[in-house]
Amino acid sequence: MKYTLDQLCKRAGVQVTLHTMLLAATRNGDRITAVTLHDHSGQHEVSAKAFVDASGEGDLAFFGGASVRYGNHGTVQTGTLSMRLGGITADADLSPASWTAAIRKAKQRGVAPLVSEEGLFVRVPITNDVATYFIDEKYDARDAQSMTDAEIGGREQARAYLQAIRTVPGCERAHILATGPEMGTRESRHVNALYQVTTQDIETGAHFADVVCLGAWPMEYHAEPGQPTLWKMVHENGTYDIPLRTLCSKDTPNLFVGDV
User: Fold this and answer.
1) What is the pLDDT of residues 152-206, one digit of tens each?
2) 113 preceded by cis ω (within 30°)?
3) Could you tell me the pTM of the whole model?
4) Which of 219, 249, 215, 229 minimizes the C-alpha distance to 27?
5) Closest CA to 214 of 197, 195, 192
């Protein structure tokens, strides 16, 4: 996929510059006029007529004075650290009930920290590894120290979960192959757009004239570490429209969003 995107950019005449960091943005009236970037050679200013914020944290919008919000209605979802395990036999017991029981017994033995008793885990094709998503942390995705503490805590959880999982038949020789390079952040800053997709849109499979892509993932809410995930399923047609309006800043006409 990365190769294909590289080739598409080449054909479109797009200059791609990786390994840079956004430091600041300049605003004139209701528009962003330039951004300050940093790389190993120092700082550079880039001017443009339009900008796309694909930071995932709404950084460009925030630095450029556009309207943003952190979380939704006072709630911010937890993040999850993935963990990939090797050494699990092909006939190992991978039933959720067995893994949950093993985690509960480990808690009773005093193994800590074990936050979530239930989580997602799947067998990885070809390698036969098992990818797990048990490790939840609450942190502020805008704050480097908060994220650092969460990642350190997540790696401590990983070792505790390994102890619990090794008691499951077929998992006695399990070992950690990798934990995620960083926490999987579900929610951070949002750019306030001309339109926000609603619960009703998802539940009814809404259609819009200015649709630019389709949503198919259910609504999920991870409130606190260790608490059950709340789900709302998509309409029976399987998708809902995401209109262009959701990718357009409501108060900065030349700012667009690269992710929803």
Assistant:
1) 999 999 999 999 999 999 999 999 999 999 999 999 999 999 999 998 999 999 9
2) yes
3) 0.85
4) 249
5) 197
